Amino acid sequence: MSLTANDVKKIAHLARLGIAEQDVEHYAQDLSGILDLMTKMGQLDTAGIAPMAHPLDQTQRLRADRVTETNQREHFQAIAPQTEAGLYLVPKVIE
Amino acid sequence: MSSQWEAVIGLEIHTQLSTKSKIFSGAATAYGAEPNTQACAVDLGLPGVLPVLNEDAVRKAVTFGLAIDADIAPHSIFARKNYFYPDLPKGYQISQFELPIVGNGHLDIEVDGETKRIGITRAHLEEDAGKSLHEDFHGLTGIDLNRAGTPLLEIVSEPDMRSAKEAVAYMRKLHELVRYLEICDGNMQEGSFRCDANVSVRPKGHAEFGTRAEIKNINSFKFVEKAINHEIERQIDIIEGGGKVVQETRLYDANKDETRSMRSKEEANDYRYFPDPDLLPVVIEESLKAEIRATLPELPDAKKQRFIAQYGMDGESAATLTSSRELADFYEQVVTESGEAKLATNWLTGDVLGALNKAGLEIGDCPVSADRLAGLLKRVADNTISGKTAKQVFDKLWNGSETADEIIEKEGLKQITDTGAIEAIVDSVIAANPGPVEQYLSGKEKALMALVGQIMKQTQGKANPAEVNKMLIAKLKG
To answer: Phi, psi at residue B9, to the nearest 5°?
Structure first.
C-alpha cells in the first residue's frame, strides 16, 4: 500500500496539521512504510486469536451515577481568551 | 408520490439517557442551568483528565437492548470519532464504532391496521456535544458546554420503512418505549429525543437502493412526516428530470417546508474512528443481564393485549390507554378503586383525556386524581347520580378539591330513589298535560318525551330517566 502526496495533504487537513510542501513527499514515503508493515502483519494467520481492543488485559470500571462536580466556571474561564455571559467565545464557525 | 417510485427510509434516533451525571464525568446533566456551570474539567477536555464510565448509562443501554430483543455485546468498546468543531473541546467525540453495546434487535409498528417489523441494526453509547450560539456576540460564536458529555444512546434502524407514515409510527413507538423503560424523558423541546432520517427512492420492485440524503435534527413528529415527504418528492423530481441525487446532509426548514443542503456528507472513514485508549473494554456479565431483565416493566404491546383481554376494551381504547405508562397506571388505579372497568375506559378516553387535551396537560398533572375519579364512577355505577349529572360533578372535581360524594351531598344531586315521590310528580304532570297525554294515547310516541321532560324538570334532573319512562308508560297504558 502506497500513499500519494494528495493522501498526505488530506490527512494533514483532517488533523489540522500544517505540513510544508517540500516535506510532503518525505511523509508519503514514511507513512507508506508503516502501512506496508501493517500489510505484512495482516498476512499472519490470526485465526483463533481474539482481537485486542486495549493493550491492558483489564476491563472498564464503572462509576456510580452521582453528581460529584461543583460549578467552577470562574476558575475555568479565567484562562479562556474571551468569555461573555458565561459563554466561551470563539471565532464564528458558520458562514 | 407517483406510483412507480418507492421510498426507502432508515432513522437514527438520539435518545438522551436520564442519568443524574454525565457519561464520563461527575458533572450534573440537569437541563436549563446557567451556561457552563455544569461543565467540568473532563467535559472541557482539559489536559490530563480521564473519562470514567457511568454505570447507570450502561444499565439503561442494556435495558433498551433487552426490551427490543437485541443481542447485548458481552464485550463492548469505545472509539474516538474525530472532527473539529468548537462545541467539541477534545477534537473527538467518544462514541462506539465496532462492538456497540446493543446489536441486532427489532420493534413492531402498526400502520393502517397492519403490523410491520422494523429491524434495529444497533444502539450505541456516546457523549453529546456542547451548544453553539451564533447570534449576537459581535461576530463571534458563544459556546455553552453544559450539554457536552451528556449520555446518549444512538439507535440506528435498518432501512426498513417505505413511507413517511411508517417512519413516524416507528419514531412514536420508540418514543413510547424509552419512556416506558424510564431510560429517557422523551422531551423533544429540550432535545432529549432527536431524529435524523436517511431517505432514498428507487423504482418500485428494484432491489438496489438509490443514493440517500440524510435529513438532520428533525425534532417533532409532525416535522418528520413533512420533512421526509418533502425529501421524497425532491428526489423523484430530480430523477424524473434526468438528474442524479447526490449523497449529502440536508436541514429541514419548518417555516418554508423544505430541506436545504448543509454540507457534503463526509465519508464515514474521514472520522478516523479508532479505539479510545482512555477506556477499557466494557464487559456485560450474564448476571447483570438477568438482573435487569427481571426488573423490566410490562412493555407497551404486552400491556395493550392484556388491557383488551382483562378489561374487555377495544383495540383503539387499549392503544390510547397504554400510550404512556402513567396513563395506563392511572387507568388501572381507577379500575382497582372503583371496580368499574368499562365506565373507567369510557370516562378516561372521553371526558378525562378531552379535558386534559383542552387544558394542555399530561395525565401526571390531572387535577382529578385516580381515587377522586373512582369515587365519581362508583356513584354512577350504583345509580346515585345519572350520567348527565356525573358530567357536572366531574367539572367540580376538576375545579376543586372535594370528593364526588361531598359534591353530590352539598349540591343535592342524588337521584330520587323514592318511588312514591316520583309517582306523585308523574301523576301531577299527567293531570296538568291532557294534550300530550291524548296525543300519546292516539299513537304519537314523541309526545311522551314532552311529558318526561316536564317530570325531569320538576325533579331537577334527579330522577332516573329510565325509571320515569317506565313508570309513565305504565300509568298511561294502565
So the answer is: -130, 135
What is the least distance, in Å, from the CA of A23 to any CA of chain B?
Answer: 23
Alpha-carbon gap: B117 to the closest alpha carbon of chain A (Å): 33
> For B9-24, what is the mean pLDDT?
97
Look at phi and psi of residue A86 and say left if phi exceeds 0, alpha if psi is from -120 to 50, else beta: left
Sign of the dihedral through C-alpha B354, B360, B364, B366? negative
H helices of B162-299, where?
164-180, 221-240, 286-294
Looking at residue B270, what is its pLDDT? 83
What would the mean pLDDT of B273-300 be, rounded to a whole number? 95
> What ipTM was assigned to the predicted interfaces of this complex?
0.90
| CB nearest B141 (choices: A63, A65, A93) | A93
Chain B, window 243-302: residues with a beta carbon less than 8 angstroms from a chain A beta carbon: 270, 272, 275, 277, 279-283
3-class SS at B306? helix
Q: Which three cell numbers stand for residue B113?
A: 391496521
CB contact under 8 A, A59 and B280: yes
For the entire predicted model, the pTM comes to 0.84
A37: pLDDT strictly greater than 90: yes
Q: Using N-to-C axis directions, what is the helix angle for B465-477 and B447-458, rounded to 10°?
A: 120
* pLDDT, tens digit (0-9, with 9 covering 90-100), for B347-379: 999 999 999 999 999 999 999 999 999 999 999
Q: Which residues of B touch A62 (CB under 8 A)?
A: 52-55, 58
In chain B, what residues touch A66 (CB-CB under 8 Å)?
20-21, 26
Q: What own/partner pairs with CB < 8 Å and gap ≥ 24 does B330-334 have?
A: B330/B363, B330/B366, B330/B370, B331/B307, B333/B370, B333/B371, B333/B374, B334/B370, B334/B373, B334/B374, B334/B377
Q: Is 80 exceeded by the pLDDT of residue A7?
A: yes
